[in-house]
Amino acid sequence: MMKILFIFMIFVSVIFADTQINYNTAKLYKEDISSSTAYKMQQKGALLIDVRTKVEFEESRAKNSINIPIFKDQNGKRVFNKAFLNEVYQASNRNLNKKILLICRSGSRTKVASNILAQQGFKDIYNIQYGFQYDWLKVGLPTQR
């Protein structure tokens, strides 16, 4: 059933592809939150996804986060990771109602990712507003390498 719903959402998004959404400025997702709030939500079972590059993620990351980069490097350029949506879908166990917290370095990539996921039917998406470097580390939340 969820697979059919997911395929339907992709079909609908293709039909309305000419509708212009600025994913950098739109707010289709649930809420912008602080790292402290995100950490509390993570402790209660929310999925914390780090959308930074694999290199950034391996340097240091929020404890118990998973890495699903929204962009990848291709021939020296940053391009959209076409597998992003499917990887999030898999990580959420195909649950469009799963509470998902997104983190990046400063909050700009997560804004784009949050809007994309919300536009694709994910219902409980939260953007960690100031990201890993400017909020998570600053308030001293747990990290790992």
Overview of the molecule:
With 145 residues, this protein is of the alpha/beta class. It has helices at 2-15, 35-43, 54-59, 84-91, 108-119, 131-136, and strands at residues 31-33, 47-50, 61-62, 66-67, 71-74, 77-80, 100-103, 125-128, 143-144. It has one domain (2-144): 3-Layer(aba) Sandwich (Oxidized Rhodanese, domain 1). The protein is built from six helices and nine strands. Strand 5 (71-74) and strand 6 (77-80) form a beta hairpin. The chain starts with a helix and ends with a strand.
Tags for this model:
145 residues, alpha/beta, Oxidized Rhodanese, domain 1, 5-stranded parallel β-sheet, 6 helices, 38% helix
Brief sketch in words of this structure:
38% of the residues lie in helices and 20% in strands.
How do the helices and strands line up, and which of them pair or pack?
Elements: H1 2-15, E1 31-33, H2 35-43, E2 47-50, H3 54-59, E3 61-62, E4 66-67, E5 71-74, E6 77-80, H4 84-91, E7 100-103, H5 108-119, E8 125-128, H6 131-136, E9 143-144
Parallel strand pairs: 1-8, 2-4, 2-7, 7-8
Antiparallel strand pairs: 3-9, 5-6
Q: What letter string, H or E per element, gives the SSE order?
A: HEHEHEEEEHEHEHE
CATH superfamily descriptor: Rhodanese-like domain
Shape: globular
The CATH class assignment is Alpha Beta
Number of strands: 9
Strand order of the largest sheet: 1-8-7-2-4
What is the number of helical segments per DSSP (H or I, 4+ residues)?
6
Give the overall average pLDDT: 86
Question: What is the rounded distance between the termini?
Answer: 38 Å
Specify the oligomeric state.
Answer: single chain
Rg to the nearest angstrom? 15 Å
**Which structural category fits the helices and strands?**
alpha/beta
CATH topology value: Oxidized Rhodanese, domain 1
| Level-2 CATH architecture | 3-Layer(aba) Sandwich
Strand portion, in percent? 15-25%
Largest sheet properties? 5 strands, parallel
* Low-pLDDT residue intervals, each spanning 5 or more residues: none
